[in-house]
Amino acid sequence: MVVLNGTLVNAASGKKKPVSFTVDNTGCFTSTDENIAYPSNKIIVSPRIKDSIRYLTLPNGLHFETLDNNQIDQISNVFGFRKLGDKSKTKTIISLLLLALVLLLTWLFFKFGVTESTKKVAQMVPTEILIKQGKEAYGNINDVHFTDSQLDSKRIESLQSQFKTLLPTIASGFKYELHIKKSKSLGANAFAFPSGDIVITDDLIKLAKDDHEIQAVLLHEIGHVEHRHAIRSLVQSSTLLLIAITVSGDLASLSTLLVGLPAILLNSNYSRKMESEADLYAINELKKREIEPKLLFNILTRIAENEAAKKESTGDTIESNKDEKKQGYFNSHPHLQDRIKVLY
Predict the structure, then answer these.
(1) 186, 307 in Cβ contact below 8 A?
(2) In the Cβ-directed half-sphere of 327, how many Cα atoms lie within 13 Å?
(3) Pairing relation of β-strands 177-182 and 147-148?
């Protein structure tokens, strides 16, 4: 029996927890602490690069990080791991592209500073990668936080039709799709995934006084996609890691950036500049459609008032609001008052 010590990462929430796996004489990985068990042929392992961290991709959106390289090699020799097949070629190409971006970021970092550097790098990321990783992130978050909408089917159909009229007239390559969902944990909320998948919850739709307010929110989310804000936030928050990867040559660490995408989306805390860019995108599009731009801030203000009322009624404190189960719209879309002052 082999024992592996390391960290278990939940791709949906980004949470990390120290765990141990025992591997029996059949090659089955078992963690009694987490009550999970997986055969080795269901696990993908990253290649060994000296004594750097190994990344094991487990079923159900879990990842295991460990420094027990010798034990991993021993298990691989005896039982083997899941074969990547043709997907390995795709991942190799992605790794090479990301490596090129790392080198570019290092140069831009010293020439232009963090903000402009990450913006330039985000624009260099191939749309195909954003679509692939965005859809995977949506799948992970959907399994944890969302259930089917409880709205009437005709209402859903109407909103889907309206959404199609909001899409950019000049194709940007993103795969736009609207998901109307119910979420007990996230309440009145909307999210934009880098693939073009956009989620809006039943609670937010019910708060809107008319469909123009809903369209304003959706245009704001489309603005986040068009400006690549998710990947910009991810790159900006990982600048030091990116530079470290360049120095160390630890290509396996690149995967940790994309593993963190769901957590970035749930707790994005977009900068004022990013929120302003999304606001301006929405306002310009609303004006083109002869819709009053202030409707965007009417619905955002109503969401803020609704959140404040809920916190007051439940007696939530500032500290308790940090709980991931009590996420609000303005956890991921902050700076409302500042944005109103700038745009009015």
Answers:
(1) no
(2) 22
(3) antiparallel
Asked if the model's pLDDT at residue 246 lies above 90, the reply is: no
- What is the predicted pLDDT for the residue at 321? 44
Which residues lie closer than 8 Å to 139 by C-beta, 6 or more apart?
none
pLDDT tens digits along 14-26: 678 899 999 999 9
| DSSP structure class, residue 333 | S
Give me the torsion for CA of 288, 290, 295, 297, rounded to 10°: 30
pLDDT tens digit sequence for 129-187: 888 888 988 888 888 889 999 999 999 999 999 999 999 988 889 999 999 999 988 88
Q: Which residue has the tokens 């390995």?
A: 88
**E-strand spans in 27-98?**
28-31, 36-39, 44-45, 54-58, 62-66
Instruction: List the one residue out of 219, 28, 232 whose CA is nearest residue 130.
Output: 232
Give pLDDT, residue 322. Answer: 43
The pLDDT assigned to 144 comes to: 84
Task: Report the Cα 239 to chain-centroid distance in Å.
Answer: 17
pTM to 2 decimals?
0.63
Higher per-residue confidence, 126 vs 119: 126
Q: What is the pLDDT of residue 185?
A: 84
Here the contacts of 280-287 (C-beta below 8 Å, separation 24 or greater) are: 280/223, 280/343, 281/219, 281/220, 281/222, 281/223, 281/226, 281/227, 282/216, 282/219, 282/220, 282/222, 282/223, 283/343, 285/166, 285/219, 285/222, 286/212, 286/215, 286/216, 286/219
Give me the sheet containing 197-201, strands edge to edge. Answer: 147-148, 177-182, 197-201, 190-192
In this predicted structure, the answer to whether residue 253 has a pLDDT above a threshold of 80 is: no
C-alpha atoms less than 13 angstroms from C-alpha of 127 in its C-beta half-sphere:
10
Would you list the DSSP string of 245-293? Answer: HHHH--GGGHHHHHHTHHHHHHT----HHHHHHHHHHHHHHHHHTT--T
Burial class (CB in 10 A: 0-12, 13-18, 19+), 339: buried
Strands 2-10 and 28-31, by their bridges, are: unpaired
